[in-house]
Predict the 3D structure of the following.
Amino acid sequence: MSEKPKIAFYWCASCGGCEESIVDLAEDILEVAKLVEIVLWPVAMDFKRKDIEALADGEIVATMINGAIRTSEQEEMAHLLRRKSRVLIAYGSCAHTGGIPSLANQFSRSELMKYVYHDAPSVDNPESIEPVSAYQSATLPVFRDVVRSLDQVVSVDYTLPGCAPNPALVLAAVRALLSGDLPPKGSVLAPDVSLCDACPRIGSKPTELSIEAFKRAHLHPIDPDQCLLAQGFACLGPATRSGCGERCIRANMPCTGCFGPLSSVRDQGAKALSALTSAIGADSEDEIDRALDGIPDPVGTFYRYGLAKSMLRRKVDLATTTKN
Amino acid sequence: MPNVFEPRILAFFCNWCTYTAADLAGVSRMKYAPTTRVVRVMCSGRVDPQFVLSAFAKGADGVLIGGCHPGDCHYLEGNTKFLRRFRMLKRMLADLGIEPERLRLEWISASEGDRLRTVVNEMTEQIRALGPLHMPAHFKEWDTEVLVEDLSHDREEEVGERV
Amino acid sequence: MEHEVHTNGKEEVRIGFYICHCGSNIGGTIDVAAVADYVRTLPGVVVSKDYKYMCSNAGQDMIVEDIEINRLNRIVVAACSPLLHEKTFRSATHKGGINPFFFHMVNIREHGSWVHEDKALATEKAKAVARGAVGRVRFHKALEKRKEPVTQSVLIVGGGIAGIQAAQTLSNAGKKVYLVEREPTIGGHMALFDKTFPTLDCAACILTPKMTDIGSDPNITLWSYAEVVDVKGYVGNFTAQIRHKPRYIKEDLCVGCLDCIDNCVFKQGNTDDEFNQSLSKRKPVYIPFPQAVPKLVVIDPEACTHLNGGKCEQSCATACERDAIDFNQKESFDDIEVGTVIVTTGFKTFDAARKPLYGYGRYDNVYTALEVERLVTSSGPTGGEVVLRDGRRPKTVAIVHCVGSRDHQTNRWCSRVCCMYSLKLAHLIKEHTGAEVFNFYIDMRCAGKGYEEFYERLLEEGNRFVRGRVAEVTDVPVSAEEEGKLVVKVEDSLAGFVRRIPVDMVVLSTGLEPRQDASNVRRMFNISCSSEGFFLERHPKLAPISTTTDGVFIAGCCQGPKDIPDTVAQAGFAAGEAMALLDKGFVEMEPMTSFVNEELCSGCKTCIGLCPFSAITRDDAKEVAVINPVLCKGCGVCVAACPSGAITQNLFEDCEIFAEIEEVLAHA
Amino acid sequence: MKYAYYPGCSLKASGKAFEESLLAVCSALEIELAELDDWNCCGATAYMAVDETKGAALASRNLALAEQTGLDMAVPCAGCYGVLLKAQAMQRKYPRLADQVSVGLKAGGLTYGGRVRVKHPLEILAMDFGTKAFRSRVKVPLKGLRVACYYGCRLVRPESPFDDSHDPVTMDNLLKSVGARIVDYTLKSKCCGGSLTGTIPEVGQNLCYQLLKEAQRREADVVATACPLCQFNLECYQKDIARKYTDLKPIPVVYFTQLLGASLGLDPVALGFPRLIVPIEPILRERGIMAKAGTEPAKAGV
């Protein structure tokens, strides 16, 4: 019997949404399942690390890893799967550019620990207990100082962008994988053109855009037909790859940039910032500043999914723990 | 050489005003700190925030952008367009821990060689007081924590400029 | 020596690097050999040399030869400012057989050796910027300069002696000229003068024939009482809009008979006569002076009863046999196309009231030099009689030099003409009145042909010269002889004591300043001003009439104070440059325009509204942005803003700039 | 409106009428002048001439004290005003001197950040309060009173932040707005002789004579001053001067604040009128601004 190609799924620092997106393939998943042998899928199946270690190098045809890399365990698994896989796919925004978890690159480890174990309003920790990486014979993965995208830890062959990737793109990617009809290595498996290309509202975008003041989407009513930028909402569509199916736009919300930058852009946040602010309808410093007040958290706005892969990667002056 | 920290300031000067002002400072033999490295652009409006981030990421301790005074832009209002980006960029960089003194925008007209000298000297002193930013060292330091096993694994294909 | 093959992903890159000593200008501060040694180690560099004078023929030939011998395909020269010699080395690169844009220039003189004292640090800086250039030039692409035809006409803005001279020169060569003058007549300040220094020839005798010629020259379209309100385009292809102020006279019907003026209901003048520096009155319908060109009357809407809505029998209109008077005239506009522009907008004189200690405006008998010019002119308000406002003839006159010039409280510059015109006025006043004339000066600056001799003549004529800046002019007497006089208080710096000299009349030799609206003019023509506000020449010595905008030239006092001979020479020079452009017939456009990569463009429209020249439109069929290369001026605003990285600017491509940033900083 | 008030030595001695009238006017206008705690002599002209650094430090101590209040500084004495501005300008221009001054201040537990705005009451009343607002408070217009406005040399030289240094007009405008007639007085910013009146009287008193003579020639009823030393010189030496220059007639020399106070209808005693050597009441009565003798002054509201 001809062996079915082995594939693996793994998750790192992620929310589980990417796993959901695989399930979202619905009945198509059965077609895939028939054709392949899944050797690892922690969310759904009970294979262990030792099962993977037992495989020969390169034995897995393709592995999709979602989630950012935050812990030593995630690094180890990334390395292991890289070694065992012929094709490694960064699946979803977190693996692609760091995703929401990489916004934590604005804080030091101790700040994070302090908040999560002591200061958060929901915490009840009267004895002020914090996790330790080793206790007696037990060890825990090391929590790193820096959140990374997958390709900052191992080399990645392809990327499926999105938070989460949309099922059509996933299916297309799997089919390409199985047929061997693959684009050049390093490709992002989504159109290399910005979201405006497919945006249903592009017709209503004025050519002389003049943003008097940025508005925050939860504070103002949103016209469901008009270009969101024209309404003053910081829509990152112009600076974001398309292929998502314009889901946010169709749900009357501005694009927040989860599909990442185009191939010719090196820093999505900087480009988005440049495109959006150049069109501010003010010339004096004070007026410009007033217009910008509608973006109170520029890092969270322009690097919502991409701080790890931004040029600066992380807040500069944070403490690091050089010894782990 | 005495052990003084010499800041490295990457400067983007517009061709018509600030670059010419720097030429004038030269012709007038005005002396100022040898800390700037000038990248000539036609207009401050050409300065992409990516350039600024790249400069910091590649090791600049400060970034100075020089353009024409408002209303004097050779291209009407390229300087204003950069000003808009600059105001946001400055806020964003502050959130990322880069001190405001490290990023400066100055309107320096072609006749203001003296102003150029003052600005460069002032900025040099301010950054000298702050100390080096040295992002490449930060990156290196951050990455000491990562597992390096297998990092060389088929790296060949990945490196190389994306042109 | 063998080199590693270095590519930019497309071709093998072979870079030649040259560093110039510029005599000791660079070599005295920067260790050029060390820089050359350093650059030689950089990837892709095949040749790295230093040379005494790169811009010399030998230096350029070296590049040409090396390109051939070493199959160089990229050239970097570290020398002076690219604004000075980029063209030189581009053409050397081209001469070597490769595209001229495979060249990049590094400025280590103006930005290096001339501004830094620490030799080691200056050398390190030179290495860094050289490395940046080597890094960037790898990505340079072959570019072509686009040729555009030059419209065969010239716009001259300002009809003073500079504009007149330039217009005549161009017309003599058969060029079409539009001469636009704001005032009703051409002639400018020179028309106000009686005599000119040092020859004392009559200003009107040498100027008015030229004015008349202009008025009748078929090559010259003279528009007086008109202003340029808008200028668009670029060298060779400017469009300008001219606004004609209503004269309330049909210009084609008026023959300048002046019957209307004689028949105006006002028998005497009712308005200050600007031409006579308000020393006399004129009527609402007037001609600035008898030799005005064009010889057309003007009706002043402020002063005219009818135009102010009052009741008037309009006797002027009745008197005009040709029915030339048209009270309903409105302003009108002309749009013209020209290949080049010469700006000759002149100067204004310093407002003497800004020096309150000299009492102008407070004491009747304190005059400005221009007022006295009118007093000594036979066609002036007093028929050439130098008399005080009360009709008395002054017995003693003080001429105060440097009013508003060489003064840190007002203008720091020397106005260059005041010493000489003060001498002229001293001579004329003495000649007309026999008065004792005192000149109060800081230095006598009489540099010019025949100028010093004129000064000597004045000394011989018995004029008094007191060296010292006048402290004040006062009417407060401290002795009987000062009663009823103006007292000039001055420290006589030759005699070494403070003097009080009572006089009947004080003449303030006011300096020259940029016109109030110089900055509007500057913006309209996209040229620069130096710090004091005069228009900035491209190079103080080698390009004194060129500006930072190609095809826009400047001449006369708008560029800086100067006398008539210098103005005329400069105007001729500007005309020559304009003519050279016209006769060449085409201009080569810098290729640093931007273009859209249609594959990457999503048609998001971000760039369209940002373009200041409306060069970007959206192709709605393809749903992409399109840049019109003719309209694009290459600022790069759209490139920086394009969120898709879909726009590229030639010579300033992202990859080039990123490489420059990275490499400049890679040198520790 | 509130200011940190630095009176300086003169206003506590020979210039008492200046302080009295200034405080009276300000209190009537609800302008609060909070006197600085523990102020010291500004150093006057003498100290700067002897040792600039120490002179600047001495003056800067007052600036440092004022800076602590966060208020603008009100400085009525033209001498102090000039010295404080000079101390500021020198520190701006010469960083080394600024360093030395700050070392000195530090020894006294003080710092000066260069942020204080030093203002003369002329500027405060004419610009901050406003000439227009002042006019609306006038109860007794100084109709017909011919005033020679004399600024002296220290107030507006070498550079004034609020007026022209050769042809100042702030006082002219202020007094014009309360109804006075301002005579053309071109000597308005000439020197009164300063301390020369006492040290070399033949020079100093001659300067005073010229100023007074010109005021007389212009038919001024009164000379208004803005500096305690000017007022002192022009008033106290009048008898001496008149002995030498017999054509000089007595003329009242007052502080501009005294005239402003009169226009607000304030009590002449509160305005320091009794301190004047050449009384002003006669001319005020003659011009009908003050009630004729016999009427009780306070009630007449001047």
